[in-house]
Amino acid sequence: MSQNIAFVGVGRMGANMARRLKDCGYNVTAVNDVNREAASKLAAEIGAEACENLADVTAKADVIFTVVTNDDAMRAIFKGEGDNLLQGAEGKTFINCATLSPGIHQEVEAAANGAGAKTLEACMASSISHAREGKLYLMIGGEEETYKANEPLLEKMSANRRFVGETGKAAEVKALVNMVMNINTAGLAEGLGLGAALGHDLNMICEVFSQTGANSRVLETDAEDMQARDHECWFSAEHAAKDSNIAIDLAKAKNIALPLASATAKQYEKMVELGIGDLDKSGVAELTFPDRRTQSAS
Fold this sequence. Notes:
Layout lengths: L3 E5 L3 H12 L3 E6 L3 H11 L2 E2 L3 H6 L3 E4 L4 H9 L13 E4 L5 H13 L3 E7 L3 H6 L2 E7 L1 H12 L2 E8 L3 H29 L4 H9 L6 H12 L8 H17 L5 H15 L25
Parallel strand pairs: 1-2, 1-4, 2-3, 4-5, 5-6, 7-8
Antiparallel strand pairs: 6-7
């Protein structure tokens, strides 16, 4: 508990992770986000400092969590000119939690090691409420010694963890998780959309799905939202497109065809093109249900 903790990227996941560790008695000393208003608001809530400079974040913490949107953002915070997290980083540990390509994790690890710092991947497969309650599922990649050194901290954040292997391997597994999740979500939207077009009671359809091979986790999490058109964002369509394409790029490198993943990515890319990429992934139902405004565009 004596470690000082900081966060770069305090959207809904990062902010709730910070709140959780504060509640567990850790010293959350600094936060940073491109949305400075969000960082300032969280800092005031948990008694941290909202740092404008990344180097100041590193200076104020022993362990720095990063939860950023994509590879470019990751590269900018670690390797940006003039100000970055690796300034004065000797002896620090960076735990990187966003869904990114394996390559960027490897690139950041090499840069951090050159600065005398350590890194871990801690890829998350859970929701915002899990982040707040310390019930994340984490896929860990990096040096096992670094993982063991930080396991007590990670235990406070997660219900379960799986050490996958060297840096980049956890990102590969997370890409597979999100690829399959996205396929299941798009498949459910098509099943319910066709069921609606055929005039079936969708509650009955969901009950039947739950008792047969059509069952899946997304049936539990997304079916009701698809019917009610309640697409409050927990995991955006834009992020679904990004994550499916990470898996597709990995497959291309291995000369593996992923026709279902490719079709699913196109559905989420269509949502972005239509200006609804900020909806939850359940919003893919807007492309499949009859009489919805985006049906003609799908």
